[in-house]
Structure formats: C-alpha cells, structure tokens
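Changelog note: in this version the structure field was regenerated for every chain. One regenerated record is shown below for reference.
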Amino acid sequence: MPFAETYATEDPVLQTARALAHELGLPCVSPGAGSVLSVLAAAGSAKAVVEIGTGTGVSGIWLLRGMRPDGVLTTIDVEHEHQRIARRIFVEAGYAPSRTRIISGRALDVLPRLADGAYDLIFVDADTTEFAACTEAALRLLRPGGVLIVNGAHANGRISDPSARDVDTLTVRETVKAIRESEEWIPAVIPSGAGLLTAVKR
C-alpha cells in the first residue's frame, strides 16, 4: 500500500463507515484521498460544500473535518438507505444535524435547485455518466476560487491505456481533457486513491 494511504489514519467512526460501505458493495474514497479532501476544504476555509454521492458517509466525514466549524455539507444521493446510515455516522462522528443537509434524489435533478456562486467546494463521486453534467453544474455553483474535485480520474487504472475504449474510460478521458482545456479552470490530477481530478474556478 502506498505511503500516502498509510499516512492518513482513520478513527473508529470512519472505520465503521468504511466497513458498512464494504458490506453494501459501495466504493468509497481511500484514506489518502480522504485526507486530500480534508486538506483542500481546510485550505479554502470551506463553509458551503456540495458532495455528490453520500454513500455511508466516509468522504462526508473527511470533508467535514476540513471545513469551518460553522460549515454545512450538502450531500446528495439517490439511495435513502445509504443516507440513513450516513446520517447516523455523521452524528457518531460528533457533527450536529445542522452541519449536514442530506438531499435524496438524482444529482442532475437536485443541482439545478442550488444557488449560483454559493459554494466553496464541490466533490463529485458519482457515476461517470454524470461527470460532464456535474462539472458543468459546478462551474455555475462555485464561487471564484472555489474547488471542484472529481473522484475516479484514473478510470480504474485505464486512463493512460490507449487500448482502453470502454464507455467509462472514454467519459473520464473527455472530462479530464475538457477541464484541462477550459480557460475557466486551473486543473491538476492528484494521484491519491482512484485519482482526484481537481480544479480551481478562475
């Protein structure tokens, strides 16, 4: 295991959330990627954060730990049961219910209802089919200097394999390329976990 992954330690609450995700067959951010989420939230003094893909609360806890004490995490997921678990995990981690806004529904239905330029950080941990729409929405939702983070930039290790032509890999490639070529973003790929495509809105 890479040193970056072992360097990031997880307490019993995070370990529980991770174990529950494993039981449900849900992928979640690695400890190394989680620590990057915390650092980026802290670096931007993030107060308003959107997470697309609640899961069992693993990435949500990492984000909350980097956010300001008065910050609110808006987290979106289609699965009510996953969010029920995450709600419990957030409380066990010591966060008051007022620190999270848990919205059930498809991200593409929920995002249009969120306010323009009101967010400091957006974390996309959704199906690759929604990457383009989520990154487009992020450009509207983030304030200047706000941070977009998209999980899965390595496309399960296939991103740099020219023979990999499956839909998921092609979609990730297109997203990474579009962000890099846009004059509206300052991008980088952070090689933690499944790969974090990270970009700051100009």
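Spot check on this record: Residues 167-181 form the longest helix (15 residues). The mean pLDDT is 96.
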